[in-house]
């Protein structure tokens, strides 16, 4: 199993929207960055990820699971763009802010800390466990 981070502006697609989709989940569509797309191509069913609210909140708010591997993005006819499907697994009892993540030396190598604009990114298992603990899981 690998670990990831999925960023979304809550005004566009929020954690609550993701949770409302239930076990059916939702495509992580609309990604138009080659590096983010390539990360999605590496994902496997069962991989876990953080759901991260960008913009004002800037915090990890939940855990998701990849439920479908990379496939054509239904929001475009351009075959360069692919996406995975994810479903909500669990809310973090306490959201973990970007400032809290940046304050920890053991998380300083995270892509989120060094390239906060990338919408889909890998997370190490150690960082995943640390942030889960910080969030009360």
Give a description of the structure.
- With about 140 residues, this protein is of the alpha+beta class.
- Helix content is about 25%, strand content about 35%.
- It has helices at about 15-20, 35-40, 100, 110-115, 125-135; strands spanning about 5-10, 25, 50-55, 60-70, 80-95, 120-125.
- A hairpin with a 5-residue loop joins β3 (about 50-55) and β4.
Radius of gyration: 14 Å
β-strand number: 6
Structural class: alpha+beta
Can you give the helix content as a percent range?
Answer: 10-25%
Name the features.
single chain; 137 residues; alpha+beta; 6 strands; 25% helix; globular
What's the SSE blueprint?
Elements: E1 3-8, H1 15-20, E2 26-27, H2 34-42, E3 48-53, E4 59-72, E5 82-97, H3 98-102, H4 111-114, E6 120-123, H5 125-134
Parallel strand pairs: 1-3
Antiparallel strand pairs: 1-6, 2-5, 3-4, 4-5
Summed up:
25% of the residues lie in helices and 35% in strands. The protein is of the alpha+beta class.
């Amino acid at each position: 199993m690998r670990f990831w981070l999925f960023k979304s502006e809550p005004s566009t697609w929020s954690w609550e929207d993701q949770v409302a989709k239930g076990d059916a989940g939702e495509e992580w569509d609309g990604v138009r960055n080659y590096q983010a797309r390539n990360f999605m191509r590496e994902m496997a069913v069962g991989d876990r990820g953080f759901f991260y609210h960008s913009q004002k909140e800037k915090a990890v708010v939940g855990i998701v699971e990849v439920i479908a591997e990379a496939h054509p993005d239904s929001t475009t006819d351009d075959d360069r763009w692919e996406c995975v499907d994810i479903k909500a697994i669990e809310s973090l009892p306490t959201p973990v802010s970007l400032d809290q993540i940046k304050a920890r030396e053991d998380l300083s190598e995270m892509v989120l800390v060094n390239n906060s604009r990338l919408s889909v990114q890998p997370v190490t298992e150690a960082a995943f466990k640390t942030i889960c603990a910080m969030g009360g899981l």
